Amino acid sequence: MSFCPLDGEVLEDDPTSIVNSTLDGQYHIEKMLGKGGMGAVYLARHILLGDRVAIKVLPPQMRNNAEWLRRFRREGQAARRFRHPNAVTVYDLRTTNEGLIYMVMEFVEGQTLDSELKARGRFTPAEALNVLEPVMSVLNAAHAQGVVHRDLKPENIMIGKSSTGGEPTVKLLDLGIAKISELAGADSGGSTALTVAGQILGTPYYMSPEQWGEPSRDGSPEVDGRADIYSLGTVFYELIAGRRPFFGLTLQELRREHVSVVPKPLHEVVSDVPEDFSAAIAKAMAKDRGDRQATAGELANELRASLGLST
Question: Within 13 Å and on the Cβ side, how many CA atoms surround 49?
């Protein structure tokens, strides 16, 4: 915890400063679960109902623009309306009298896909498909409603504990949150779609060329669902190869790799990967979005067919 050197008060942007406090008279904040460029996430309990929830508190730089707050509510309501059994549910979005902006979300007990990968080392193609097929189902539904994730990565995929003792439940986190942050970047005069007050919008290891600002052949500057398909391809690659396809040490190196470097095909990295499976992943990671699968459902069907599964 950090303190003001003048008066000893807890600094407002210290994410641990609200632990053990009551938020908005409704939620007791129990502990911080994590922190990233899009805010800090806490485990909380509703004081009256006793329900455990996850609360994401958005960064301070997103609080001071009335037009952005209007957009935040609009985009946040879109995220709140979206329902899918494999997407973490957004229950509410609020601003406190002090200007704190937060979202109340479903709490998923389990571990991230990133943690699971570190424990396993790598996944077989069938195992990777089993984990990511629910994510593709979420994306297929979200893209049909015009909702793009924009920050797909292993850390945003939860392997939740089953309440019945059966198969673990896969849940996609942060659907639509990156769009909210991008709106803040537009209002704060950010020079590119990549940053919000110095923060990267999206995670550089998984971002599509168009998210780096590389023009697409179709000429449209809008980021659409095919950016998520690209990111999904990089996640598949990492799970199966046991390493990321791009590993530059600086943003400049990573941008160059995403824009112009073609990774070694998966079947040449791991011998038990079918060539058709490898080809589908390579297509998902095509540099121009027009060369990728049009939908997440199309990618799922190609991968299932390559493993001899029904589509």
Answer: 9
As beta bridge partners, residue 159 has 111, 170
Quick: pLDDT tens for 232-264. 999 999 999 999 999 999 999 999 999 999 999
Number of domains in the chain: 2
**What's the alpha-carbon Rg for the chain, to the nearest Å?**
20
Q: Pick the last residue of a domain from 38, 71, 106.
A: 106
Distance from C-alpha of 99 to C-alpha of 53, rounded to nearest angstrom:
21
Given the residues 151, 174, 187, 228, select the one marked as catalytic. Answer: 151
DSSP track, 185-227: HHHTT-SSTTEETTEESS-TTT--GGGGTPPPTT------HHH
Identify residue 195 by its one-letter amino acid code. Answer: T
Residue identified by tokens 């799922």 is: 300
CATH code (residue 49): 3.30.200.20
Residues 207 and 70 in one domain: no
Which whole number is the average pLDDT over 107-118? 94
**Residue 94 domain boundaries:** 15-106
pLDDT (tens digit, 9 = 90+) per residue, 217-236? 999 999 999 999 999 999 99
Give catalytic status of residue 151 as yes or no. yes
d(CA 5, CA 119): 42
Look at residue 170 and give its three-state secondary structure. Answer: strand
Q: Are residues 199 and 89 in the same domain?
A: no
* Separate counts of helices (H) and strands (E) for the chain: 9, 11
